[in-house]
Specification:
- The complex is a heterodimer.
- Chain A is mostly helical.
- Chain A is 74% helix and 0% strand.
- Chain A is built from twelve helices and no strands.
- In chain A, helix 5 (76-83) packs parallel to helix 9 (143-174).
- Chain A is globular, with a radius of gyration of 20 Å.
- Chain B is an all-alpha fold.
- Chain B is built from twelve helices and no strands.
- Classes of the chains: A mainly alpha, B mainly alpha.
- The interface between A and B is large, with 40 and 44 residues.
Amino acid sequence: MNSQFSAFWGATRYEFVMQARRPSLWITFAVFTALLLLLINQGTSALNVVIPALLKQESLHQVFASWALYVNTFLPICLGVLLAGRLPRDARTKVDELLLAAPATQRARLFGKCLGATAATLIPMLLVYAGGIVYILSFAHSPANVLLAVPQALLAFAVIALPGVLFVGAFSIACPAVIWSPLYQFLFVGYWYWGTLWFHADIPNLSRTLLSPIGLFSAMGIYGLNESSGGNHPIHITGSPLQGVASIALLLALAVGVIFALDGYLRWRQVSR
Amino acid sequence: MSVSTPVSTPASMFASTRAELDRLRYELQLAWKTMLLAPLLMTAPILLLALLQHVYLRQDATRILLAGIEMLLPMAAGIMVATTVAHDTQLELHLTLLRPYRTTSALRIVLLTLWVALLAWAGLSALMLGGQLALPTSAAGNMPFAQLALAQLIWLAPLMWLVGLGACLGLLTQSRTASGALLGGVWLLDVIFVGAIAQTPWLRPFLLFPSTLVVYPLHRATYHDFTMYWLTTRLDLLGMAAAFFTLSWLLLYGTERLLKGASEE
């Protein structure tokens, strides 16, 4: 058991360092965030208009929750696509069969890979989030607000963004084992639009369900965000705290389940070779 | 001192053409399954949604089919180019050959783009001939062939732009995942912020999908809207695509960068 934990921890650390040192990770997030900021600052949705307006009608922790929801609406696109290359890399560099000869179980390595790579890919997203928090605090002048801000901001991120990020990370690690990586990347971008951002009811979609990985039900149910938080694009959805907790539990359970399924699939593939 | 220059005889030209055809056949044999099937698989979800909308929900599925042609097929080609342009399992071996890697890479881009263009052309022509889609009569008159020809810009402009950008990103980042992420991100931002892009004059040339998202249905658009949001932006995109392809061609000269990227990922 101990050896499996050290294998898991070793894989987590190694994958974290390997991913964090990759220049393409930082370039991708930097370019995407620059484009995002450029576009959201056009017209009435500009942050210097929206944030003071939100601070007037909502508490600080609700504004943090709004920002967490906003960040989690867009940046997981980069996270999901960037993680899609992690598992195929093992096959391409031909270390997958070598690792099978090691005493550590495949499952411990897969969990380590998922957690380490996702955590490293999360850092730039967290930095963007932190930048927004500093910007929000520049409008909230009370020093007491600033002292309380760090734990509040971290909690909002953990509750709203983290479950969805782990969900996306697990799927992005696992799915390229079954389908060609560029095909997964394309389907993931399409899914993100249809499954999280398409709120129109004319076409069936997952955006209004507990499976929405942007943390919609957590933000609505736990933080009590309402339609006014949607700014010019109200979401027309409400959620109870129980639904918020259920959404988090569902996303985390699916993330764990996907890695178990991946382990089973890879074992089956090894046996059938 | 005289320098002898090679003389192009009919026999040498025939041999050269035959070598190029062999090369084309080899590329097709090498990747025909991926090249042919991937764009079809990528657009399968939209076809399923269109079927669901038409059969189950009893709604008009024209817009979703148009989205498949204008938004998804070009994106599929762009991602495939971005993830394959700078990578080849036998890259080191290829760089030792007389034939430059850039011509092989360009040939692959052309083959993939032609296949996706064929799919998009067939889809759009079917929609237009079926009477589901038309351009404003003020723009192309009542001549069906003129309408059909001009309407091909619906898919041609975003296809060339996304393929060109995909090639540039693939070669600049040297990373399959980074180029895919950036291309996917650009696509998504262009869709989500379509209103802001259409209303801001300096951003308008980057309006990728106006036929589905801005001036739908096209035949009801005023001449002013059609010219401003559709025709001008299509030409802008084609101009930018030409710049992307030129840059990609120049980047393909950097063989050392290609090798570095292959080992870095």
